Every structure is written in C-alpha cells, then in structure tokens.
Amino acid sequence: MTSNNACTVLVTGASRGIGAACALACARDGWDVAVNYTRDTAAAERVAREVRALGRRAIHVQADVADEPALLAMFARIDAELPPLAGLVNNAGVVDAMARVDQTSLARLQRLFAINVFGAFLCAREAVKRMSTKYQGQGGAIVNLSSVAAKLGGPGWYVDYAASKGAIDTFTVGLAREVAAEGIRVNAVRPGIIDTDIHASGGQPERAHQSSALIPMQRPGTADEVAAAVVWLMSDAARYTTGAILDVSGGR
C-alpha cells in the first residue's frame, strides 16, 4: 500500500473482468475500495461484498466516467463515505465491433475516446486534487490500464481502440513527470489478449482463446495476472517506479 491501513483506491469499471480482479487484489493488499460501474448494479454489489469479506471497506458507485457531473458526484461520495483517496486504477474502457478505419463513424470515435481517454484524464484530475502535496494531500499512486494494442496498432480490427490506448501511454508518462515531486506515482499496465468479457462486447466472445497462436506463451492471460501487476505498481514495493509502462502480454 501507499501509506497506512486507512487509504482508499478507486477502481473504475470494476464490476467485471480486469477491474473486478483489481478491486479484489487491492483489498487483499490492504486497501479500502470504491467500486465504480456504469450499468450492472448487481455485479458491482457482488464485488463490493467480496471486498468486505476480505475485511476492507467498500462502496459501489455508479458513474459513466465520460459524464463529468456524474464523475464529480462519484468523487464526492467517495470523499464522504470512505477514508482519504490514495489510489486510482483507471480501468474503465470500451471496445466496439471490429471495423477498419474506412468504416469508422464519428459517433463511434467520440464514444470510445470519451470513455477510454477523457474519462481517464478526468478521474486522474480529481485524484491529483486529493492526493497531491500541492493540495495538502498525502500522496498516492495512479495506475492506468493501457493495451499492447497501443504498440501493435490494431490494423484491420481496432485501430481506434489502439489509438486511444496510445494516448493513455503518453498521458501516463506526462502525468508521472508532472506530479512526481508532489508525492504521486503514475504508471500503466499494458495487457495483451486477456480472457475477459470485453471480447464479447466487440462481437467476438471466443477471441481470447482463438488468438492463442498469436501469443508467444500460446495462451491468453487472466484478469488476476493483470491485477497482480497493478497491485505491485500501487504498492510501496514500487515506490521508486513512476512513468513506467509494464507489459502483461505473454510476450506479444
């Protein structure tokens, strides 16, 4: 953890997949957890219950990270109901159906960048206001979820998604340097093909296992394997690590 036993981490998009795994891994590492979600209240409640079963405090709070008023209300509720915020896992993200650039609509791009990029910026902005020593905060850690697609480009599949994650990589490095002297570390994890529900959202529920031949380790990763990297970057064990982007991709 970053400091003591009374610190809160906000995990966005935490009702399923990598976000849920990060929420539980953070709880095991001693964090109280704000479980953010957009639609599935029952799933978010379940994650919050599992956090409490691990002996930590938890709330589930609904907010679309692309909706600034809802995002501000979420942070206000965290301030009121949990210990001081010392961690942020910027996990919320979307992918659309497979499409080439010449098939891409403005509406698709606006939705994808609003959630994947603007939402991460806004959450980080609010977290910095709470954690930075510039604002009398006690410091903290931010981990952004990128994707190995940022390196590969996603040709023929998800160039727009890959571009949004490329923006997250640049954002991570820039913010890390901006707040390094203010007690805040900022890093990113870049997952490869991970066996989660996001592939179904893109219309290819079996993509993770069908793509095993593309992965040097010949298998997709798991949400827990990504969460382990996130928790390490959040912890004091990584106290001299900032501006780093850690691939968890099976060698891809």
Distance between the termini: 30 Å
Query: What's the number of extended β-strand segments?
Result: 7
The residue fraction in helices comes out at 40-55%
Low-pLDDT residue intervals, each spanning 5 or more residues: none
- What integer value in Å does the Rg equal? 17 Å
* CATH superfamily grouping: NAD(P)-binding Rossmann-like Domain
The global form is globular
Strand and helix order: EHEHEHEHEHHEHHHE
CATH architecture: 3-Layer(aba) Sandwich
- What's the CATH class, please? Alpha Beta
CATH topology: Rossmann fold
Task: Give the biggest beta sheet.
Answer: 7 strands, parallel
Number of helices: 9
Name its key features.
alpha/beta, Rossmann fold, 7-stranded parallel β-sheet
Provide a compact summary of the structure.
With 252 residues, the chain is α/β, with parallel strands linked by helices. It has helices at 17-28, 41-53, 68-81, 106-131, 149-152, 159-179, 198-201, 207-210, 223-234, and strands at residues 8-11, 32-37, 58-62, 85-90, 140-145, 184-191, 245-248.
What does this structure look like?
This protein is of the alpha/beta class and 252 residues long. It has one domain (8-248): Rossmann fold (3-Layer(aba) Sandwich). The protein is built from nine helices and seven strands; from the N terminus they run βαβαβαβαβααβαααβ. It has helices spanning 17-28, 41-53, 68-81, 106-131, 149-152, 159-179, 198-201, 207-210, 223-234; strands at residues 8-11, 32-37, 58-62, 85-90, 140-145, 184-191, 245-248. A seven-stranded parallel beta sheet has the order 3-2-1-4-5-6-7, with helices on both faces. α1 runs parallel beside α2 (41-53) and α3 runs parallel beside α4.
